[in-house]
Amino acid sequence: MTARPIAEHSAAPPALGIDLSTPDPIPEEGIDRAVALMRTGKLFRYAEEGAEPSEAARWEEEVADYLGRRYVIAVNSCGAALYLALHSLGLQPGDPVLLNAWTLAPVPGAVEHAGGRAVLVETTRDLTIDLEDLERQARAHRGGILLLSHMRGHISDLAAVQALCAEHDLRLVEDCAHSIGGSWDGQLTGTFGDVGCFSTQTYKHLNSGEGGLLATDDDEIAARAILASGSYMLYGQHTRRPDLARFEDLRGLEPNHSMRLTSTAAAVLRPQLRSLPARVAQWNERYDRIAGGLAGVPGIRLPERPPAEQFVGSSLQFFLDDLTGAQITTFCRVADGLGVHVKWFGAERPEAFTSAYTSWAYAERRALPGTDAVLSTLCDIRIPLALPPERCEDVVAILAHALDHARAATTHSPNQPGR
Ligand SMILES: *Cc1c(COP(=O)(O)O)cnc(C)c1O
User: PTM N6-(pyridoxal phosphate)lysine: at which residues (predicted)?
Assistant: First the structure.
């Protein structure tokens, strides 16, 4: 008997035929609302003369009720919300801001924008912030601000984080760009710290193209953020805001940074919050199906997620721990060819959305061996609702085939560079 040629190692499954980057469409109710608003021309959230609360003000009320927070300020991106959070907490030039080394570029970008010094904190093998390293950095920098990302929806132990912040005098800002709808031990993310920030950019859980939210219970932070976001002297039109008296001392002091959300964006968002719980259940059904399938594929490791972490499975991360970089490149190429776009965080040159700290030349460098090890084999796929649940096993089959192929290709070609 002769050995089978590599090409036949495993028959390729059919291509998926569904674009995994498909965003959620805007609900018809949101479209109708936005069109009606366009007919009036009143797209700016503030009116010079007495008016009904704008769509933006209504949107803020609805999010505040959903989160159970006193104040919510809608702005034009999560990056802007993060900036405003740091600014309103009184960050001074050169002050340290501790943040996850594994996060998205707008996070260190917001620190830079606010004049802070980004101090990157190590990542665990289950993709949360490394609490031991966090404690070391908090000690070394004596307090400051922790800007904690629930990156790709991975929620750190928030009870432990809160205790650590209290012990080390750290103010906590949660970056919930990927975690609205998620909770820790029954409490929604974005409600654990001084400020919670959210994104309504197309690829997150609420879609207005661009948009962000800042949520807080603190009067001073809210008043400063409303003024600094660009409310002019029309801040009285925010219906969830501190007493007008709180603004008196701050009026002339806060610069206007023009980070407002349009009423059109708010109009398309409002019905999406109502459907969020149902959509979270749909994401999680798909996540569970794919994760369940991948758990049976030797060579693919899924991060462990504790029961207290009630996450939103809008994307899925996995590790190819025993593959070389060259093999992972092959894996991604084969999966991509079959319609499953995989992002590999260990690629030398970051592509698309950058999330490798090594590409942020403006942030202070420190040795992060734990994060390096994590990123070197970390892969990620999007889980759009456009993927029907019954097609999830096709995604698993494609990834399993790509893994088979990547292993076989390298085993059989001696010219391939090694580990
Ligand atoms: C997308 C994202 C942001 C930034 O959100 P924008 O609204 O695009 O500014 C911040 N943090 C994380 C973890 C993100 O995924």
Answer: 204
